[in-house]
Design brief:
This protein has 139 residues and is mostly helical. The chain has one domain: Glycoprotein, Type 4 Pilin. 48% of the residues lie in helices and 6% in strands. Strands 1-2-3 form a three-stranded antiparallel β-sheet, with helices on one face.
C-alpha cells in the first residue's frame, strides 16, 4: 500500500469539489426559473379569479330568478337575496352572504333595470375595483 503525502490528497479533494463560482451560477439559474414560474402562476391565478367570478355571476342570476318567482318582483339589491326585506312575501335566503362577494373581495354590482332592455345586470368591477374599466367581469 502506497501512502500519499497529505498535501496531494488535499489537492485532489479541492479539485473534485464545486467551486464557489459554480455554486453561484447554479443558484442564479434556480432563481431565474423560480421568477419565471412565479410570473406564470400569477397569470393563471388572475384567470382563475375571472372564471370564478363568471361562475358566481351565474349563481347569483339563478338566485335572482328564484327570488322573482317567489316574490313576484326582482330584488331591490343583492343583500335582499341574503336577507329578504320585511315587505317580501317569502322570507327565505336565496344565497349565502359570501355568494355576493367577488374573488377580489368586493360586492358584485347589481343594477335593475339593466342595459339594453335587460331586466337586470350583474357584474364585478374586477381587480382594479373601478366600474367601467377593461377588467370588469360580466357573464
Amino acid at each position: 500500500m502506497k501512502i500519499q503525502p497529505t498535501s496531494r490528497r488535499f489537492a485532489r479533494r479541492i479539485r473534485s469539489a464545486f467551486t464557489l463560482m459554480e455554486m453561484i451560477l447554479v443558484l442564479a439559474i434556480i432563481a431565474i426559473l423560480i421568477a419565471i414560474g412565479a410570473s406564470t402562476l400569477g397569470e393563471f391565478d388572475e384567470q382563475a379569479k375571472i372564471t370564478a367570478a363568471r361562475a358566481q355571476i351565474g349563481t347569483i342570476s339563478t338566485s335572482i330568478k328564484m327570488y322573482k318567482v317567489n316574490n313576484r318582483n326582482l330584488p331591490p339589491s343583492l343583500d335582499a337575496l341574503v336577507k329578504p326585506p320585511g315587505n317580501a312575501p317569502v322570507k327565505k335566503s336565496f344565497i349565502e352572504e359570501n355568494g355576493i362577494i367577488d374573488p377580489w373581495d368586493n360586492k358584485y354590482i347589481y343594477k335593475s333595470p339593466g342595459k339594453d332592455g335587460k331586466a337586470y345586470e350583474i357584474y364585478s368591477a374586477g381587480a382594479d375595483k373601478h366600474e367601467g374599466t377593461d377588467d370588469d367581469v360580466r357573464q
